[in-house]
Structures are given as structure tokens and as C-alpha cells.
Amino acid sequence: MMARVVVTGAGVISSIGAGVDEFEKNLYAGCSGVGPSQLLGDGVVAAEVRNFNPQQWLGNKGIRVLDRSARLLCVAAQMALTATGLQQQDTSEGDPNLGLVCGTMFGSVHSITSFDWSGVTDGPTYVNPMEFPNTVINSPAGQAAIKHKLRGVNSTISAGLVSGLYAIHYAAEFLRFGRATALLAGGVEELSEEAQVSFGKVGVLSARGCLRPFGADRDGTVLGEGSALWMLETAESAEARGAKALLEISGFGAAHDAHDIQAYRVRGEGATSAIQQALAAAEIGPEQIGCVIACASGSRTGDEMELHALKNVFGARLEQLPVCAPKAAFGEALGASGALCALTAGLALSKRSIPPIAMLSAAKDVQGDYALVNCFGCDGNNAALVLKGLS
Q1: At what angle do helices 269-282 and 300-314 cross, to 10 degrees?
Q2: 3-state secondary structure of 225
Q3: Strand 98-103 relative to strand 154-157, pairing
Q4: What is the mean pLDDT, run by run of 10 residues, along the chain of 391 residues?
Q5: In terms of pTM, does the model score above 0.90?
Q6: What is the DSSP letter of 194?
Q7: Which end of the chain is more exposed for a tag (fewer CB within 10 A), N or C?
Q8: What is the DSSP letter of 224?
Q9: CATH topology of domain 251-389
Q10: Helix axes 337-351, 163-176, angle to 10 degrees
């Protein structure tokens, strides 16, 4: 029998709050982090972590060498480690069974671009060697492992918009096969000029700077940023150390149906398959799902595709099923979105209520012990996660 994998704590920093308590408070108050960007300026609208000061969580030591992505991830890791009592002492060598699996779409893309641009314009002899460690996509995960003495598994999953959800599944599989006893799992993404310009050029950003998931007048998405991490453990190891299990990772499904690098298959065959696989892995039927945390981001075709997939799975019951699209609150955080949506699902199961869609709808009660988390990308990656509430 495969080991059960449970969630024992979390850390999060996003445009609507730092820490699970603040994130939950603002999410359920219907707040939105979308607004004028301090980082990008010039009238750019984004869901940004404003006035970000990592020192209050991490102190001053070693901060200077960390770029924005690494700082966001290190802060979320610090919160999750503290919440679960697994933080390592400064004098220790670290735990070889404690690791990190991080999902990200672009990683430290601004650091990578800046370093390369410096080499091209000034010449290779003038680049700053201190910045080189930040120029690989797995640098945030590596820096977090160094900062927090995570000596176990250290992996970075880059699968576009589904990266954060893939990372949770990947970590859960490591635990089930006994390759670790505890793993931080989730995602990180930084807001950057490079991503903003790129997504603007392919026409997926809202011209009005307004993210309205499933809205009839939606015209695109708004980029966000942040980091969310769960502490995952086997139920056996959590019980042995007296840790309370909050959620169980019950089922996961993935399917790929790419046909164009930036277009969704509106009929949603891949998304439908991913959801059905997750339900089968959890050994439950669609009628046992108490709520859905959707990946809808205001994309005209993406939201339509997800709606098709939900109708394919739930049929007429969809009209009564509580559905929340929390990206209206924290933006399209790319590789971190799956983890942020999963965290939202965990809160919904704990509170027996889904949060409102920021500025669009009211909160709704949740009936049942299971939640479905969707994460679908225009590159054909489709993933779905089923969670079971335990608290």
C-alpha cells in the first residue's frame, strides 16, 4: 500500500498578503492585488508584492546575493519551516531528508537577461561574477536550500503555467517512494519587465488592466508574482513527530493536448482527461467534489476551455458546485499559480467555504471533503489535483 502524503504547514507571499493568515484574510475579504506596478512603472498594471522587504523574515545575512525570485521563495520557505517546526539550526549541517521541489515558469528571468545583456554590451570581462549563480532556472531552489540548510531532494519543475501543481505531485511521489521524509513543494515567480513585454506582444494581457475570470467582458489576464509552499510529509512520519495533518494529497492527473504554442484547445479534451485521472487516482467520483478552484485567468479562450472541461466532468451539477477563480485576487502568477490555487483549495476545505472571486462574486459554502484544483496551460500542459480536508 502506498504511503499517504499530507500537508502539515504552509508559507506564502503574494500581492494580497505575506503569510497564510494575511493571505487568507484578504482573499476572503475579496481584496485584489491588481494595481499600478511600482516595479515596472509607466502605467503598467500588475498583481505585485509591493514594498517587499525580505529582511523581516530572513535577516540581513546573505540577502545581497539573492535576486527577487530567490528572495520570494526563501521567505515562503522560512514561513513553512517555522510553521512546522522543521527549521534548521544555524549550527547544524541540515537534514538530508528535508528538501524542496519548486515549480517556476521563467525562474530568475530578469537576472538571466541582465547578466546576458551585460556580457553582450560591455563584454564578457565586465560581467559581475557574483550575479552568475542567479542565471540558471533552478537558482531560486538552490539558493533556498543553501539559506535554509535543506540537504535533501532539490528539484525545479519548469512546465509553464502548471509548474507549481506539477511540483506538488512530484514531491508527493518522492515521499511515497521513501526518498525523503519531508519536502517543501510549490512554486515561485517574479514580476519582470521581460515577462510583461513578452506576454503583451502575444496579446494575452488585458488592455483594461482588469482580470475578470469567466466574465463575459473578459479581455485578457494581468500578471502577478509570489511564492507558495506546502510542507509535505507521509502521514506516518507526521504522526511520529506529533505534527497535525491538515490536508491529504489524494489524486493527480495530467494530460497534454498541444496543437499551437499559444492557443488553447477550446473543447478541453486534455483538461477533461487530467480531471478524470485525478478523480480516478483519488478513487472518488465527480459527485464527491465539494468545490473547484479554477485556473481561469481572464483569457477568452482559456476560460472557455476550462468551462467546457468542467461541464464534461460534472454535467448539470456544475451549476450547483461552488467554483472559485482566485487569480482575480493574486493575478496570473505563472509557475506559482498552481501552488497559490492549491493553497486556496486547502483554505476552502478548512473553512468549509470558498472565497469570493475578487470584485466579482460572493463566498459560497462547501459541502464535502474533497476539492479539485485545476491548472491548464496554452502550451497543452493540463494538470488537476484532488485534495482531501482533514481538519
Answers
A1: 40
A2: coil
A3: parallel
A4: 91 98 97 94 93 93 90 98 93 89 91 74 75 82 95 95 97 94 97 91 92 94 97 96 96 88 80 97 97 96 95 96 96 97 98 88 91 94 97 71
A5: yes
A6: H
A7: N
A8: B
A9: Peroxisomal Thiolase; Chain A, domain 1 (3.40.47)
A10: 70
